[in-house]
Amino acid sequence: MTTTPQAVRRASPRTRRAATPPDPARPLLPDAEPVRLLDKSGTPLPARTDYPEPPVEVLRELYRRMVLGRRFDTQATALTKQGRLAVYPSSRGQEACQVGAVLAVRDSDWVFPTYRESMALVARGIDPVEVLTLLRGDWHCGYDPTEVRTAPQCTPLATQCVHAAGLAHGEAYQGRDTVALAFIGDGATSEGDFHEGINFAAVFKAPVVYFVQNNRYAISVPLSRQTAAPSLAYKGVGYGVPSEQVDGNDPVAVLAVLTRAVAHARAGNGPFLVEAHTYRMEPHTNADDATRYRDGAEVDAWRDRDPIARLETYLRARGVLDDAAVAEVAEQAEAYAADLRTRMNDQPSVDPLSLFDHVYAQPTPQLIEQREQVRAELAAARDEEGDA
Amino acid sequence: MATTMAKALNTALADALAADDRVVVFGEDVGQLGGVFRITDGLQARFGEDRCFDTPLAEAGIVGFAVGLAMSGLRPVVEMQFDAFAYPAFEQIASHVAKLRNRTRGALSVPIVIRVPYAGGIGGVEHHCDSSEAYYAHTPGLKVVTPATVEDAYSLLREAIDDPDPVVFMEPKKLYFASADASLPARTEPFGRAVVRRPGRDATLVAYGPAVPVALEAAEAAREEGWDLEVVDVRTIVPFDDATITASVRRTGRCVVIQEAPGFAGVGAEIAARVQERCFHALHAPVLRVAGLDIPYPAPMLEHTHLPGVDRVLDAVARLQWDDQPDPRWAAQGSAA
């Protein structure tokens, strides 16, 4: 390419001035305001070219799974009150995040959930009884993670962030285009493993989407005690990871932002961090009393931003959802809950001897001894029952 | 041919990388540098940066990353640079590495090898000489292995990498560069088997890792006192070989357990309890322990007071009630009480 005199003339004023180099952090930063495509009443906001609206049939499916998800959540809370579950951490109010996130990934992708993602897992199509196994207490993880490409629900906070980085790197190393979606809450962003996970993913350019549901409380501790950052999405820039924040109660925006984040990761650009601003309508679990740390007015204000009502209003206004469709979805949700109720009312059978089966691939001699001891104890107990 | 444990470990890693495409080796400084102890020397040059690589300096990250890689079907071998620097990874090890198979009823397994250079005797400054094996041995779901010979170093590491379960592979630093005749590749006894390193009739010394050479030296020295001592090398703390150790103690009737780690609540305490439970009627004396002192690992100029050496082992052997007299140490305390 030859340089014309005109080009030299055009370029010269700029080269004379001390040019400010482009800020490399700039493209990594989130929008100053959370991305929002619907206002809180469900009225569409101006379209954005960077976050195109998902197709309408996907939005209808999003609506359907959100309604089913909330019904599942309500049923799980009821089952806890009836003593069928040891404990249940509800995600009521977070339906846009729970369902939107799993709709943004493929069945062949991997999901790394926390204990609050039961709704996300049923939205992913995992059997609800298998999802609730952990909380019912008949085993730790009820589903086969390799079959549903979903890690066990993670209770040690943020530890799954590093697993997601490793899984994503391992999949890419073996030539597969799998994306890992790691869920995490606002409180857990204070844990070291969040930072180590996102840093490893960035250094190895692993295709991971870190999805922070900022529901404002870590049990009782408010966000102001977790961070002094302008928003949790700003935590990406320090690791060289592009980030975005989104209105977590706007289902259309959540799906749009996560779709872009997943595409970014799948295209080989490395990890992406999304913070969704949302709210946990229920206490931390049934064992918690949220009135001790937040007031009712705050909860009521968030009730006005209900994600399901918001999407329903929008879809009705677009003419793609009517009374009949809403009733049909509600009916499906009731049937889903009824089936779950019936199946959860069956007392699960547990086998004490199975305690030794999966500690190692083959039990050690010491475990075999202990299994025989337990077997003898059980036999003695049965004999006593027989005598009585 | 004379070779070192360091070379045997290096050869084992190279052979495993060559034998199985799923094996990847990573950690801090393991790439171009070849590890601070040179255990991974030359692996990156030979197998490429995808299969032997440096990571960010974060041990929880390294082990957590290995969990994810194992979930994707790979066989990660990670290096913790020093014993005490593995502590940040403990949550990943105890809550995930050890438990994933059990949590998922066998659906997910994470066959990871976590190599930990451990123990002292090398004049290292603080945080470089901990004997941390008990933390891992106390965690169900982990296998805990520690070689004391050059051939075992090769064979046990190959077996660890092939094992379907996670293995914490504890490498005694002070034995890295001791030389011995060995022909590699060697295959020795499998996991779960202790080995009699020196046969003897009068008492059994049970040791593992860095304490094995001490036990052998003590047994040699004891000949002058007229004692013929048997030395058993535990080799794999988990799975543990009760049978070999029990058989030995039933033969000899006396037992001293030797470990470099602080004695309280340590692996040696477990071994002593197991021997006592199984061999009570064959014992002519209480099972004794010779261990490190119950102190934080001392500064280099004081470490020899801490480390169980030949004299301390021989003192313990002398207390094994050869003339049918109660151990004066406990007898005195008994009368005071």
UniProtKB/TrEMBL annotation, chain A:
Cofactor section: thiamine diphosphate
Oxidoreductase is among the record's keywords: yes
InterPro entries, sorted: Alpha-ketoacid_DH_E1_comp (IPR050771), DH_E1 (IPR001017), PdhA/BkdA (IPR017596), THDP-binding (IPR029061)
Pfam families per UniProt: E1_dh
Keyword Kinase: no
Domain Dehydrogenase E1 component: from-to ranges: 63-345
Single Gene Ontology MF annotation: magnesium ion binding
Spans annotated as Disordered: 1-52
Keywords: Oxidoreductase, Pyruvate, Thiamine pyrophosphate
Superkingdom assignment: Bacteria
GO BP: any one term: branched-chain amino acid catabolic process
NCBIfam families in the cross-refs: PDH_E1_alph_x
Protein name: Pyruvate dehydrogenase (Acetyl-transferring) E1 component subunit alpha
Automatic annotation (TrEMBL), chain B:
Domain Transketolase-like pyrimidine-binding: 3-178
This protein's record includes keyword Oxidoreductase: yes
Broad class of enzyme this protein falls into: oxidoreductase
The protein's required cofactors: thiamine diphosphate
SUPFAM superfamilies: Thiamin diphosphate-binding fold (THDP-binding), TK C-terminal domain-like
SMART domains: Transket_pyr
Keyword Cell membrane: no
Entry's Gene Ontology BP terms: branched-chain amino acid catabolic process; response to nutrient
EC number: 1.2.4.4
Organism superkingdom: Bacteria
Protein keywords: Oxidoreductase
Residues forming coiled coils: none
Molecular function as annotated in GO: branched-chain 2-oxo acid dehydrogenase activity; magnesium ion binding
This protein's name: 3-methyl-2-oxobutanoate dehydrogenase (2-methylpropanoyl-transferring)
